[in-house]
Amino acid sequence: IGLASLGQQPKTNIAIFCETRAEWLIAAQACFAHNFRLVTLYATLGGPAVAHGLNETEVTHIITSRELLETRLQAILIKVPRLQHIIVVDNTPTTWPGYPQNITIHNMATVQKMGVLSENGKHCPQSSDIAVIMYTSGSTGHPKGVMISHSNIIAGITGMADRLPNLCEEDTYIGYLPLAHVLELSAELVCISHGCRIGYSSPHTLVDQSTKIKKGSKGDISILQPTMMAAVPEIMDRIYKNVMMKVEEMSCLQRTLFILAYNYKLEQLAKGHSTPLCDRLIFSKIRNLLGGRTRLLLSGGAPLSAATQRFMNVCLCCPVGQGYGLTETCGAGTISEHWDYSTGRVGGPLVCCEIKLKNWADGNYYSTDHPHARGEILIGGPNVTMGYYKNQDKNQDDFIVDENGQRWFCTGDIGEFQEDGCLKIIDRKKDLVKLQAGEYVSLGKVEAILKNCPLIDNICAYANSDENYVIAFMVPNQKQLQLLAHQHGMEGSWEDLCSSKAVEELVLNALNEAALAAQLERFEIPRKICLSPEPWMPEMGLVTDAFKLKREQLKTYYHDDIKRMYAGK
């Protein structure tokens, strides 16, 4: 009601550009209740992308934090002429000198008081009204605004909740992923609908070893001790690699004991048995990394490697629900059953949607393939969103309506249905490259396999149809690379090691071994590599907030290295 007192009208757009925190969700619920269309923008987006979203949606009001206002938003205000009101969620000063005269800045608490005094009433939405215009972080090109209706949200969270066991008021969820991402927003709305508690954190304060946690102090997860959390594979991969590095540093006896317990528990899980003694004696310390009470982990945003999933199931003593969904399907699609410990699969369709496979002749994938049907994944149902904001051409490409009036979203991902109805993601149309000799290479498959190598923190495979081999840019694991270099008598600064041709050769040899052990074809293995001393973070614009690779941006960033690696074939 306070926002209405500032002139915000029903069925008009209002933006939120803020970190994940309680005020984000409170503001969102207020907008939903009064039929204001909420435009969500990632807190890590650069100035031009934020200006693009604000101008495209023609917002006059924006909700933000003091830090983002002063570090990101202030610099682009001149490029957003329609903006009139900025609502700051922090307890901040009431006067803001130095801002354009046409813009008024308010505290959230002040706007709430205005709502108490106002006589404006609620304007309840219809189910078909737009609730959210969610700007994707954009793994390709400009971010696109996905129009999500109120009925889409209800359908999506209903489907997810049906697959998550025993949700209740005793559960505690930790929120730290961007709320502007459909996975986090959906997860938190599921929690609210079941009365679960939500505690807020950030990637910089999550665990005891996080960058903004003082040495000797506890991270948020240790204090909150959540029973549920959502995570993207990048974060799970880091936990897995850190623990396995510590296992390597154990004494011979300790390491042997750990491996025996690990393999024993894997066997018992496959038979449907629990291992309480092993959990208490061997895995309790690892389980405490996530607070010690976690009973369910939800993984989404990208495929989770088999090695990481097995590690989570065994060492963290809780099931990992792998999910598959997109912003365009309100985050819903599939979630694996909590008792399903198989790897590489994302479960069966949720109750809110249907899934079918469409032939893709270019990649040689057909729904008639044996032993399993394969093809491009199409998702249909009430969770399929209304399309892209002001982008009719893209709507016609990606959304189709069948003869029964059912809307389907063409995902661009290639799937395979198993005998029990579970879906497995096996490829992506945009990741498939045909080499000069005619072989098809799935870049995503190459990356997923090579990321299991301890030397690699992140990797982007690259190829084009004019060449006959694959190359890769990669972020090496600092500890592992320095150890490898030391073993071969090479010393120097981190930057010197990453730029060394001799070190590149050592890493390339290790990659070859890992690739051949995983049965990659020779033509799929990168022949040349470039080592990056700097990790790829969303702030750099090279990965999304869910840590998916932005291939076009990476290609531009490493343009000179690509020319070097393909020169002198």
Description:
The chain has 19 helices and 25 strands. The mean pLDDT is 91. Helix 2 links the parallel strand 1 and strand 2 (37-41). It is an alpha/beta fold. Helices cover 34% and strands 20% of the residues. The N and C termini lie far apart (66 Å). It is globular and about 70 Å long. It has 4 domains: 2-149, 3-Layer(aba) Sandwich (Rossmann fold); 164-352, Rossmann fold; 353-430, Luciferase, Domain 3 (Luciferase, domain 3), CATH 2.30.38; 435-566, 2-Layer Sandwich (GMP Synthetase, Chain A, domain 3). The strands form 5 sheets. An 8-stranded mixed β-sheet has the order 5-4-3-1-2-6-7-17, with helices on both faces. Helix 6 crosses helix 7 and helix 9 (233-248) crosses helix 12 (306-315).
- Strands, count: 25
What CATH architecture of the largest domain do you see? 3-Layer(aba) Sandwich
Beta-strand level of the residues, as a percent range? 15-25%
Q: What low-confidence regions span 5 or more consecutive residues with pLDDT below 50?
A: none
- Remind me, CATH topology of the largest domain? Rossmann fold
Q: Main sheet, how many strands, which sense, barrel?
A: 8 strands, mixed
Structural class by helix and strand composition: alpha/beta
Gyration radius (Cα, Å) is: 24 Å
- Please report the distance between the alpha carbons of the first and last residues: 66 Å
| Quaternary state of the chains | single chain
